[in-house]
Specification:
Helix content: 40-55%
Low-confidence stretches: 1-12, 85-95, 160-171, 370-389
Radius of gyration: 25 Å
Distance between the termini: 53 Å
Largest sheet: 8 strands, antiparallel
Bound molecules: iron/sulfur cluster
């Protein structure tokens, strides 16, 4: 067997390592075909040879952990270089699966197992280099933070199975579950279950950005709910239909649909559906530039969220209100609303709180953030497509029709926090904690017997429970999950 030099073909776009200002002594090993490199970081020479860490980047795991920051997952192998001619000869003789060749041609023996709980963090062009204190507050559980270049930090021991992994292993794609539920409902001739499965399927397609299939499935669900005169579920389905219309760039038509959804929710006396509809009315109003109307809708939704005790939605709505106040030039109200959102997130142990706080700090200081990279796209149908923030938050973060991308200043900074939060949620390594398997099981059992469970989603919060139950800090909107 030959000595090892690389981990296998790269799967993503390699970052520009030349902008990292690597410390003297760090060796680079080109990665075939990617234009990227693996880094060799030297340790202090000891008796028995010099230790090295070989850091192999995983460019497909790149994400933006904060304004102006970029990060990527990496794997680290620790090796010991025997040194000198004797070491080189010995290496050649003993070349095997745990023997590595350094870029200078010498060999080294692997010590221990490969580590995958590692991130490399750097700043984008024009932004200040990341500082260690900032990184430690971002990943408080990190085992170590080491500067390896003027613009590069190595963060070890980030929580979970490692960056790049989905925030939790999901048993199946929500779309596949919805398709199975639909087939079963049709086989049993159960119209209500059929409508519920169609609504779930349409929502799954919405998360996968497949507007055509989403509208088709939601339209069928809507027709059945009309037949059954189920106003509450009609409102939920229409709301998702409006989000599809919004996502394809027609906020005017979306607003009409959301208003119909609101009317149905009120007719049904369903306060959860009413606050969801009001949130969407606000979103469409904001996209249409009707700031005062949007704010009024968010405030009504906020009052309902407080009345029913739905803290997660309350925090979201406070942040949306902060954005809208900022857009309207109400700086003090924007700050107060943003601070209230962050306080609530902290109370809920939401690891995204620090990220929102950083965006609010920059807004308060009048700073300009470097543009954030777009959240990594999840493959259609993969579990990751259902993680990382609501569709409403995605639409907030996206520019409206004819609008440029959000400027990295003023209200744009507050909107950008939503994109950054989405990026963060996709990676366990970025600070999210997964719930213990037993907790997940008990949460899912509770949902399975709950009247608000559609078979796939919680109708009260709109989340896919299979994804939500796996994130430790999440909670049931009506407190049903076991402590
Ligand atoms: S999260 Fe709570 S309300 Fe929603 S389905 Fe589960 S148990 Fe029911």
């Amino acid at each position: 067997m030959q000595p090892r030099t690389a981990d296998g073909p790269p799967t993503g776009h390699a970052p520009d390592w030349r902008a990292w200002g690597l410390d003297g002594g760090v060796l680079t090993e080109p990665t075939p075909g990617s234009g990227g490199v693996a880094l060799w970081l030297p340790g202090a020479k000891e008796r028995g040879g010099r230790p090295w860490q070989r850091v192999s980047l995983r460019p497909d795991t790149g994400f933006a952990p904060g304004p102006g920051l970029q990060a990527t997952g990496a794997t680290v192998v620790r090796v010991r270089q025997s040194g000198g001619l004797f070491g080189k000869l010995l290496g050649r003789l003993r070349a095997g699966d745990r023997t590595w060749v350094l870029p200078d041609g010498s060999t080294a023996e692997q010590q221990g197992e490969r580590q995958s709980d590692v991130l490399l963090v750097w700043s984008e062009a024009g932004a200040a280099p990341p500082d260690e204190a900032q990184i430690r507050s971002r990943w408080p559980g990190a085992r170590g933070v080491r500067r390896v270049g003027t613009n590069l930090l190595l963060v070890e021991g980030v929580e979970g199975p490692g960056p790049g992994a989905p925030a939790a292993p999901l048993p199946d794609s929500p779309r596949a579950v919805a398709e199975r539920l639909l087939a079963a409902a049709r086989a049993a001739g159960d119209r209500r279950a059929e409508a519920s499965a169609l609504a779930d399927l349409g929502t799954a397609y919405l998360h996968e950005s497949d507007a055509e299939k989403s509208v088709a499935a939601l339209g069928e669900a809507l027709a059945i709910y009309k037949e059954l005169r189920d106003r509450s579920r009609e409102s939920d389905t229409l709301g998702n239909m409006g989000l599809v219309v919004m996502a394809i760039g027609n906020p005017g038509r979306a607003l009409e649909i959301f208003q119909m959804s609101l009317g149905l929710a009120r007719e049904a006396g369903d306060r959860y559906a009413e606050k969801a509809a009001l949130e969407r009315v606000g979103l469409a109003g904001a996209k249409l530039g009707r700031g005062a109307e949007a704010l009024a809708a968010f405030e009504q939704a906020l009052a309902l969220a407080r009345a029913v005790g739905h803290r997660k939605h309350e925090a979201d709505l406070l942040w949306y209100a902060a954005i809208q106040h900022a857009e309207l030039g109400h700086r003090d109200q924007a700050l107060a609303s943003g601070e209230a959102a962050i306080a609530l997130m902290q109370k809920m142990r939401n690891p995204q709180a620090a990220l929102f706080a950083e965006h609010l700090r920059k807004y308060r200081a009048g700073e300009t953030g470097a543009a954030l990279a777009a959240p990594p796209a999840a493959p259609a149908g993969s579990p990751e497509a259902y993680l990382g923030g609501s569709v409403v938050a995605d639409l907030w973060a996206a520019p409206g029709p004819g609008q440029a991308a959000a400027p990295a200043e003023g209200p744009g900074l507050l909107r950008m926090a939503l994109s950054a939060a989405k990026s963060m949620a996709r990676f366990v390594g970025s600070g999210f904690k997964t719930a213990a398997p037993d907790t997940v099981r008990r949460r899912l059992e509770t949902c399975a017997s709950c009247e608000h469970f559609t078979g796939l989603r919680c109708r009260l919060c709109g989340c896919f429970t299979g994804a939500k139950a796996r994130l430790d800090h999440e909670e049931c909107p009506v407190g049903k999950w076991p402590a």
